[in-house]
Specification:
7 helices
């Protein structure tokens, strides 16, 4: 049981690696998908959209398991925030976004209640993710990473609104969304590795003293 609990933080690493690799490969292989403009959740739309849906849902699950593995290794507030981020990913998979920003090709732009809920969940995920990163790992590094995430997230949010309103068509909101998301997941993954190693080292020292 204890060994299984020690392995749980590895799921935080898996969430980061899977999200970065799968969304990048999937985006490159989708006709009409522009990674500089379109957001990751839009990969749930169009033909083979289930790839994007499964990616969001499973990454959310891995993040939830990773958060459980950080119990007693990080502050309770941080664990809850990471857990909440995982739940947000699952919710984004279940409540798909609207068609828009030129994707899927040939599909009229949508503005539905479902899409609005999706956007609100995305905002919640962004805010919770920034707060989670600020509370895990070395304090100075965490603050720098959280600040970079905040700038990228705000830039992505503003640019997508300008693009959607045809004020600044084709704006690179997708670049800033990925910068915020990948940076946050990457930092959590690094902290999961660091905390697991420190716990393992502590266990080794305790075992040596007992022997």
């Amino acid at each position: 049981m204890n060994r299984g609990r020690r392995l749980l933080p590895a799921f935080g690493v898996l969430a980061a690696v899977q999200m970065i690799v799968v969304s990048t490969v999937d985006g490159h292989t989708r006709p009409g998908y522009d990674e500089t403009r379109n957001w990751i959740s839009q990969l749930s739309l169009g033909p083979h959209g289930w790839y994007g849906t499964v990616n969001l849902a499973t990454c959310g699950l891995w993040l939830i398991l990773g958060a459980l593995g950080l119990h007693r290794r990080a502050t309770g507030r941080t664990v809850v925030l990471i857990l909440w981020c995982g739940l947000c990913f699952v919710a984004l998979a279940l409540i798909r976004t609207d068609a828009g920003l030129g994707f899927p090709p040939g599909v009229p732009e949508e503005h539905t209640a479902r899409g609005l809920i999706h956007k609100l969940i995305s905002v919640t995920l962004g805010v919770a993710g920034i707060a989670a990163v600020a509370g895990v790992g070395p304090r100075r590094g965490a603050r720098v990473v959280a600040a970079a995430m905040a700038v990228s997230f705000v830039a992505a949010s503003v640019l997508v609104l300008l693009d959607d309103g045809e004020v600044l068509p084709g704006s690179p909101s997708g670049v800033f969304e990925r910068a915020a998301l990948f940076t946050g997941l990457g930092w959590i993954a690094l902290c999961c590795i660091g905390l697991a190693r420190s716990r393992q080292a502590a266990g080794t020292r305790i075992g040596a003293r007992r022997s």
